[in-house]
Amino acid sequence: MTGRTPHDDPTPARLLARFAARTRDDGLPAELREKTSGHLLDLLGNSLAALSHQPAAAVAELAHEWGGAPVATVIGSPTRLPAPSAALVNGTLAHSLDFDDTHLPSVLHPSASVLPAALATAEAAEAPGAALLAAAACGIETTCRLGMAQYDEALGNSVFFDRGLHATAICGTIGAAVASAMLRGLDDDGICAAIGIAASMGSGIIEANRTGGTVKRVHCGWAAHAGVVAADMARVGLTGPPTVLEGRFGFFRAFCGDRFDTAAVTAALTADLGQRWETQRLFLKPYPCNHFTHAGVDAAMRLRRRGIHPDRIRALTLGAPAPVLRTIAEPAAEKARPRSGYHAAFSGPYTVAAGLLAPPGGAPDSGLGVFHADFTDTAAADPARLALAARVTCVADEECTAAFPHQFPAVLTAELDDGTTATERVMVNRGSPQDPLEAHELTTKFLANAQHAVAPEAARALTDEVWQIDGSPDTTGLTRALSAVAHGT
């Protein structure tokens, strides 16, 4: 008899917890520190751009109404809140514009849950910048591996999504708990307990994508909130089952039913853990519109850079992966004349028109091309854009379909007034690991996002704080910059 119990077995939750504790102790690899800093800057810019949007403003008002110990910063506000409340508000801001990063093929938005939890906990715990980055990277890694554990290659989709579950929310809760537990200094048993607790807290259904409602915007905020709470519960001694992920009544069985294979899930969660990082596979969005439309925008801007003026175009054919057509092409009449700026962001014809009409050197407000000004209600009603959008026919393209969902490619063919055609094929998304946004482009995107919410000098100070966070003794400089309020206040 060794006295060994089943709870000592290296379950996926235990292995993830040991990986997180080891990474905190050994430090994050240099290339991941810079990449995670870039993800942080991107998230903060997206959040600042969302300050005036509902439901983030409503959630912020509610969290301030709750009150509590002022230990963590709310983005864009001089008032601090309890760490779970700050994470709730900041996570809602981060996901409000659908401009946050994406992991493929799981189609998760991991940073919007994990980073707000990590920021709030790092501030409350007075953790150094390097610890913030390590926790954020491990939380994102955990989130992405949970998503990949239920990606079905044959289905070409996540089992979570196929069952109506928002994978970002339910997986992001556990990732947020890992990040927060690391920053609270918990050992691997404590981190494992936080995983076990968080698995009871994650939730999110995507019916709002079909029939409306603003609740989806809160999913990442609630995941961040729950992750902070789970880590705090583990810190004061609550425990969770170490078999919480693969067990008979665990996470995957509960959410995925019979479409669950223990061996495959375990491999997805733990294979090459710490050596191969799913975090390296995040896509950052250059344009504030549905990700399926991005390659079409790039193709349109390439045509424009070739000197093809929109006035010369008689007709346009946008080829895309067959599964995305229901999102960006149907119903055709509505996509050609979107009802609002929000609907325009999900229209293949409209976004192609916006790309063709963008200045060849990039949009004035971003330098990246299509940006927020293209998705106002006024822009969506612009006769020039609508005239171009009416010339676009969307079709399934075989090569694009084969690449999906590892990329969201497009091929755009323009029929010109002299009878010739011009084609641009974009098989790799801008902002993907294969064509990443460089540090200066991320800074440009951040400044463009922040310009309507924060004074220019405050925005520039914030970029400096983020790019230098790895060497900071704590997050004081960063959080002070985050509390900068709108122009004139």
Give keywords.
489 residues; alpha+beta; 4-stranded mixed β-sheet; 24 helices; disordered N terminus
Walkthrough of the structure:
The protein contains 24 helices and ten strands. The strands form four sheets. The protein has a four-stranded mixed sheet with strand order 8-7-9-10. Strands 1-2 form a two-stranded antiparallel sheet. The protein has a two-stranded antiparallel ribbon with strand order 3-6. The longest helix has 20 residues, at 30-49. The protein is globular and about 75 Å long. It has 489 residues and is α+β, with helices and mostly antiparallel strands. 51% of the residues lie in helices and 8% in strands.
Number of strands: 10
Strand content: 5-15%
Low-confidence blocks of residues = 1-6
Euclidean distance between termini CA atoms: 69 Å
List the total number of helices. 24
The major sheet is characterized as: 4 strands, mixed
Sequence of strands across the biggest β-sheet: 8-7-9-10
Radius of gyration, in Å, reads 22 Å
User: Roughly what is the average pLDDT, rounded to an integer?
Assistant: 92
The percentage helix is: 40-55%
Q: Which term fits the overall shape?
A: globular
Query: Structural class of the helix and strand makeup?
Result: alpha+beta
How is this fold's topology laid out?
Layout: H1 12-26, H2 30-49, H3 56-66, E1 72-73, E2 80-81, H4 83-95, E3 102-103, H5 111-125, H6 129-148, E4 151-152, E5 157-158, H7 159-162, H8 167-183, H9 188-198, H10 208-211, H11 216-235, H12 251-256, H13 262-270, E6 282-283, H14 294-305, E7 313-320, H15 325-328, H16 332-336, H17 341-344, H18 348-357, H19 377-380, H20 383-389, E8 392-396, H21 398-403, E9 410-416, E10 421-426, H22 439-450, H23 456-467, H24 476-482
Parallel strand pairs: 7-8
Antiparallel strand pairs: 1-2, 3-6, 4-5, 7-9, 9-10
Helix pairs in contact: 1-6, 1-9, 2-4, 2-6, 2-22, 3-4, 4-5, 4-11, 5-6, 5-8, 5-11, 6-8, 6-13, 8-9, 8-11, 9-11, 14-18, 18-20, 22-23, 23-24
